[in-house]
Give the backbone structure.
Amino acid sequence: TMNSTRSRSQIPPRLIPFVDVALREARKLVVIFLYLWVLFGLFALHKSILLPEEGILYGQGFAIVNAFVLAKVMLVADNLHVGENFETRPLIYPVLFRSALFAIILVCFDLIEEVVVGTLRGKSISESIDAIGGGTLEGILSVGVIIFVVLIPFFAFREMTKVVGNREMRDLLFVRRTKLAPIAAHSALSE
């Protein structure tokens, strides 16, 4: 657009590559944050229904903070190429690996958060952990399994985008299928 061209021309040429990387990383962070915020927001809403003493706004505040923190962790892990040893394997391998890895990280963050908040409220560590899946190992594992399953579509979409490309994935999702008919017909013939 004209506006972005004008602002881009105001950037010293030697800084343009850094600005491009910063913008690309910021877009990635926003996408990850939004997905996680929806996920955590739904969990917080569910928790506020089961435990009404905490209230909806309180839980949503933690959902926003947790989504931002975990989005940063995921972005750093992505930049460190976590799970790239699966590049030659079918897409299901990196999808499941990353979903499992980040489910574990998320449960750990949730445990730490509950202990810190519980301590600030005068609760013991075991009382604080009770807030996660009832505090039992089975409950905590079930929360981890739920998070694992919910992360699968996110990582599947990201891995498919790496293979297909950003523009093609965007077209597949947001362009009328009639405009994509030649592509769809070609792929149907190749099956």
